[in-house]
Amino acid sequence: MRSEFTDMHAFALWPASHGGLLHLSLWPLPSRRSLRHHHHHPLSISALFPHSQFTNHESLPSLLDSFSIFSSAFPSYLETMPQADLIRETDYPHLSDHICLDYSGVGLFSHSQAYNLSSSSHPSPFFTMSYKSASLKFEVQYGEQDTGFESSIKSNIMSFLKISPEDYVMICTANRTTAFRLVAETYPFHSNKRLLTVYDYESEAITPMVECALKRGAKVKSAIFSWPGLGINSRKLKKMLGSRSNKKKKKGLFIFPLMSRMTGVRYPYLWLKMAQERGWHVVLDACTLGPKDMDTMGMALIQPDFIICSFYKVFGENPSGFAGLFIKKSSHEVLETSVLARSIGVVSIARARSTHSQSGDEDMDTRSFSGPLSSIQKAEKNYDEGEASEKKEAQSEIVEEESQAMVEDNAGREEPDQDVEIELRGLNHADSLGLPVIQTRLRCITNWLVIALKKLRHPNSSNGNTLVRIYGPEVKFDRGSAIAFNVYDWKGEKVEPALVQKLADRSNISLNCGFLQNIGFSDHKYELEKNRVLEKRVIGIVSSGSRKKESSDVGISAVSASLGFLVNFEDAYMFWVFVAKFLDADFVEKERWRYVALNQRSVEI
Fold first, then answer.
1. Do residues 257 and 105 touch, judged by C-beta distance below 8 A?
2. Pick the CATH number of 127-412 from 3.40.50.1980, 3.40.640.10, 3.90.930.12, 3.40.50.2300
3. H/E/C letters for each residue in 522-581?
4. What pLDDT, on the 0 to 100 scale, is given for residue 368?
5. What is the C-alpha to C-alpha distance for residues 355 and 425, in angstroms, rounded to an integer?
6. What is the DSSP secondary structure assignment for residue 114, as one 8-state letter?
7. Which residues contact 290 (CB under 8 A, 6 or more apart)?
8. Is 55 helix (H, G, I), strand (E, B) or coil?
9. 251 CA to centre of own chain
10. Phi, psi of 542 (to 5 degrees)
11. How far apart are CA 339 and CA 389, in angstroms?
12. What is the dihedral of CA 85, 28, 436, 447, to 10 degrees?
């Protein structure tokens, strides 16, 4: 929302239903001083569109009217506007043309910083990454001897995340997928046989980790999520974690995110403590968290064995970057030496010495850092065949090579570059806003959007079919800033999520698609919904003796919108307006012909 809304004489627009139309009456908004006294007592949520439904996308209230209604119901949002809107307007001007709802997370730099540091019309690359052949154990023991640019980056990030360098070592990996796979390749599943995950959706990072763990003999299980709210089925998860008896014998690896990046469900971090008390090594997946969410984590109490967090470059423009794998120093002894792990993603970060073209920079940052293909294939062959002698010899060579590399590095190390500091303005902006402002802002926008989407209904529908179905929590004080949903046509048939995503992209709105899974219908009153809601998906062909059969799973393909701390009310409103266009029964067909008319590839329907 533009900052002029905070300076104008604002009015709350209270809707009332009359003859199926929306009527608005004027009421002055309280002053900012009075808002501060009522910060925790917002107007009733029922003030938003009471007794009103929208059946025509052209009848939606205007942006200004909608903002007035919104600010009446969520007055605390006004408190966040001056500082947050100034940051957005001065450092992220590109967001005025692009509504970024496909990722949130932690951004390192700002848009203006990228272009101001560049001598051309292309953004500065800031840093370069190169593949480094090293084991995790070696990195934990000797990696902290690094000085200069990479050390400065790591120090800034650990300070931002409130992770103590006294307790943890940070290792940079090409992306979060490789970070998870590195843990799976070096964790001793031969003795601690279990892998327990907590994801209500298919994760592109967790799937390779599970495949690796299965290959190494692990027994894999997943938490179950109860329909319809998709919260953790506590009874079943407690049973999977087991009892507290014989804590010294480690059960395995427990992978836990604090929030679903698809549905926005938040999970109590005390599950981590419970797993530790029952003899599990724990991995905190912090990739799902927004900036500053770690501030309330209570790291001193929990101290996971591993923490994984990803960092992209610029919000809304350049999602390339790297991931941080944080290993607790007292837990590094559990890690094993792995031939294959040396080839799958540890990277070094160096200052970019020259300005590259944008396309060149993207090629560099998104390339594979998994090493020479022949080396990977050879390592996998040795691993797959279980050739113990070769493996033992290779592991000995690893130790010798790394020790020699360390000696040579120390002998030939140049004096560290004194000019190693780099401003991580993206992190600084989140720091300057602070967690209370960020959480208030996102909570207000997310809850308004959930309510607004549910007010869209198809016209002339005998059973009042809603346009949108939202999965997971609805309006809650502590819900996360992600919404999983599907759009349905007037006949009640789901519009393919990929198509919704493509059409949103045409409106400069970026969305995600995903697959919700591990859903349980333990409550009998929802049994009838089970067959109607879940869909079967073929994921491949597997061999069973001389026969081949389909491998499939069940779940819900859905669209997801993730709100980052730079998202404002105008973004949410424009997204609402886009979704409302599906109330037009001919909208999809019109868009398909529009593609043809513009001589572009048609959308597959």
1. no
2. 3.40.640.10
3. CCHHHHHHHHHHCEEEEEEEEEECCEEEEEEEEEEEEEEEECCCCCCHHHHHHHHHHHHH
4. 31
5. 19
6. H
7. 104, 105, 106, 438, 442, 481, 564, 565
8. coil
9. 28
10. -120, 150
11. 13
12. -90
Task: Select from 173, 225, 234 the least CA-distant residue to 200.
Answer: 225
| Backbone phi, psi, residue 38, to 5° | -115, 25
pLDDT at 358 over 70: no
Domain residue ranges of the chain, discontinuous segments joined by + = 4-103+426-597, 127-412
Task: Tell me whether the omega of the peptide bond preceding residue 93 falls within 30 degrees of 0, making it cis.
Answer: no
Confidence grade of residue 53 (pLDDT, cut at 50, 70, 90): confident
- Residue 307 has phi, psi (to 5 degrees) of -130, 135
pLDDT band of 387, cuts 50, 70, 90: very low
Classify residue 603 by its DSSP letter: P
The Cα–Cα gap between 58 and 22 comes to: 12
Q: Are 247 and 237 in contact (CB under 8 A)?
A: no
User: What is the architecture of the domain spanning 4-103+426-597?
Assistant: Alpha-Beta Complex (3.90)
Q: What does the pLDDT read at residue 341?
A: 73
CA distance 445 to 443: 6
- Locate all alpha helices (DSSP H) within 367-483, ordered by sequence: 373-385, 388-412, 425-454
Give tens-digit pLDDT for 477-522.
778 899 999 999 988 899 999 999 999 999 999 999 999 999 998 8
429 close to 109: Cβ distance less than 8 angstroms: no
Q: Are 251 and 305 in contact (CB under 8 A)?
A: no
Neighbours of 584 (CB within 10 A): 15
Q: Can you name the residues that pair with 219 across neighbouring β-strands?
A: 194
Cα separation of 479 and 469, whole Å? 17
Positive or negative, the Cα torsion across 87, 89, 94, 99? Answer: positive
If we measure between CA atoms, which residue out of 231, 249, 232 comes closest to residue 240?
232
More confident residue, 76 or 365: 76
- Of 346, 281, 300, the residue nearest 140 (C-alpha): 346
pLDDT at 307 over 70: yes
Q: Is the dihedral of CA 399, 403, 408, 410 positive or negative?
A: positive
Amino acid at 359: S
